[in-house]
Amino acid sequence: MARGPIRVANFSGYLGDRFTAVDEAIAGDPVDVLVGDYLAEITLAALAARYRHDPAKGYVGYFLDQVRPHLATLAERGIKVVTNAGGFHPAGLAAALRELASRQRVPLRVAHIEGDNVLPDLPRLRTDGHRFEHLDTGQPLDSWGLEPIAANAYLGGWGIAAALADGADIVVCGRVTDASLAAGAAAWWHGWGRGDWNAMAGAVAAGHIIECGSQAVGGNFSGFTHIPGMTTPGFPIAEIAADGTSVITKHARDGGAVTVDTVTAQLVYEIQGPTYLNPDVTVHLDTLRLTALGRDRVGVCGVTASPPPPTTKVAAFAQLGFGIVDTVFVTAPDVNDKIELLRAQVSKDLPDGVDQLEFTRLGTAATDPESQWDATVAVRVAATAREQEPLVRLGLARKLASLYLQSIPGFFHDADAAPATKPKPRIDYWPALLPQAAVTHRAVLDDGRVVRIDPPADTALSEQPRHPEPAAAPPATATRSAPLGSVAYARSGDKGGNCNVGVWVPEQRAWPWLRQALSTEELRRLLPEVKDLDIVRHELPTLRAVHFVLRGLLGTGGSANTRVDQAGKAVGEYLRAKHLPIPEELLTSQEHDAAH
């Protein structure tokens, strides 16, 4: 007899997300499982450096502090917890949780997932012929020229399902895919088998929607001005049924809202295209449909699946060098000339070994400023080197501070902001693939027993679909130059060194215009920064969305590039600010809706 839907509530989308989220989830609507995601690629890079210096602390202590007051309540209510806060040391976090529960005399069983850490196996794997070709360049790992300090394979959800089936109350993971936290819980709850691909694909889609916390409830959403309670938006809940369909909702008492558009925003976030690869199943997002079912309830159905890929992603990290950043302020007029003089003065007598010195102007001074700050722009100065010593000799903060009386007029620091004086490590990122059969996926139970998770028996290679560029449309009878954001929403993010941008319209009648207007050529015109990049364009008609992958915009990854918007999170809003000819009828409709 089929069980009812499992209610999975998210309480974290990244390391540093709202500390009180576990408190709120416990006090909110009844749920069966709490899931917390902490391991963005940039976070993994930071944890890799920390783990290298102190292997005992390779997990996320923040989670331990969050859950500490609630262990008795979790046990009393039978709420399960699944998290990837184990980072590089899931066994260590599991042990810390057991000790904490023992001290509080709370009967909780804690299991952990192992096998994602393939760093110790790299020499053997490379000897066995695994080249770890870079996903974007195709170059083998041997060509990197850096020594990896971490290498983690992305695991699926079956280890989580096995641990829960054995009675675990808390499952601590390292690098599983973000969506696997929810999908593994759903597979356990419903008793799915490895071949239940359509059901698992639906759960992966639901897991992807809720994995980033408040983003599915109005956070980081282009239409935030229409979302109530945005001072403290809540966290999402996925009700996942036995057939894999789901309803996305939230705790009723919390702020924010769940709408078709907030869910769409998360679906197009940090994907490579309509084909969404997971170690357990390949999910085809181009058949997915969203339906508004009532206040804060959005149905997700129509997901189709194919067998999982034979490989899984491996994220490798290595220390690239060091960097240091300071920010100064320049006042109009003659802003460009002033920045150039600053550049020349700081560049003079640059120590050997400093390989990069970048000046980035942030903002534009008003032509006729109404206040002093309308006449002011920030200038970010960043320097990098392979070794720390040249940056120490450069003394960037000291050098900038020495220019007050010998440089440009109207030049200053924020006196209350401490200048950066110590270079920070820069961690480079190398994404690659490894056959799933080469990864030892294990669930380690609280009594020491180990459940080995076999690689998938059936696999298939899947590629992103190729969508032709739209043919030129006849000009609309009446258009007006206006921001793209007048009629469309967007969400952008990072996938290694690539940035993805999803743009969609809330109304079906605007979809034919959007897909015609937003060609690759038009994107290059709107965003000069990407004009020389390789751009991949896809369409998702059921979501009324056009999706782009901007290859190389983020260098080799957010943890190593010197861009101010390091992980491309603001590229979507930048695109929405750009003007293009928009049919009057679409603008009139949006203006009418805004007025009412």
UniProtKB/TrEMBL annotation:
Region (Disordered): 457-480
Entries under InterPro entries matching the protein: AtuA-like_ferredoxin_dom, AtuA_N
Domain Acyclic terpene utilisation N-terminal residue range list: 6-444
Ranges for domain AtuA-like ferredoxin-fold: 483-577
Record-given protein name: DUF1446 domain-containing protein
Organismal lineage: Bacteria, Bacillati, Actinomycetota, Actinomycetes, Pseudonocardiales
